[in-house]
Amino acid sequence: MSWALSALAFVAGTVITVQFAVNAELRKAAGGPISAAALSFLIGTLVLFAAVAIARQTPTSLQSLSQAPWWAWAGGFLGAFFVFSSVVLTPRLGAAATFGFIIAGQMITSIVLDQFGLLHLPVQPATALRVLGAVLVVSGAYLVLRF
Predict the structure, then answer these.
(1) 21 near 98, Cβ under 8 Å?
(2) Is the confidence at residue 62, as pLDDT, over 90?
(3) Which residues contact 103 (CB under 8 A, 6 or more apart)?
(4) What is the tens place of the pLDDT at every residue in 107-145?
(5) Cα–Cα distance between 58 and 72 in angstroms, integer?
(6) What percent of the chain has pLDDT over 70?
(7) What does the alpha-carbon distance between residue 145 and residue 147 come to, in Å, rounded to a whole number?
């Protein structure tokens, strides 16, 4: 099962990279990065509502939604920042460098979240090899940008 999940993560990575280029192009037609990010989110929102309807998911009660921790509601803001950043950075840094530094930021943050079990994640110790892996990712992003 982990190979299938790893393959899905790999495909998601390819889709995100293509999304950067697509949104950078949309920026030209939309008149700016904020408009492009908003349009991207609008289309994504419509697709997700269609998926909810097709899957016939039962809406969650307002009471259960109110039980979510305050930080659980930050996902939309964080996603908007991510898409906006990709729209701004990709034409300037290129897809490889932009994505490299995004992955580097994800790796470092993931190791910190795992080490301390933050945001209700299971604890995964920050071993020397995990930290070395993150250092290699940061180094790779720098090399892609520099050369």
Answers:
(1) no
(2) no
(3) 137, 141
(4) 999 999 999 999 999 999 999 999 999 999 999 989 998
(5) 20
(6) 99
(7) 6
pTM of the predicted protein model: 0.78
Which candidate, 20, 23, 17, 60, places its Cα nearest to that of 42? 23
From 143, 142, 116, 112, select the one nearest 130 (Cα to Cα): 112
For residue 88, give the nearest of 33, 37, 41 by alpha carbon: 33
pLDDT, tens only, 25-37: 999 999 999 999 9
Task: Name the token pair of 47.
Answer: 């697709």
CB-facing half-sphere around the CA of 71: CA atoms within 13 A: 3
H or E stretch including 143?
helix 128-146
User: Would you say 43 and 34 are in contact if contact means Cβ atoms under 8 Å apart?
Assistant: no
Distances (CA, A) of 18 to 90, 96, 125, 127, 131: 11, 11, 33, 32, 28
Single-letter code of the amino acid located at 70? W
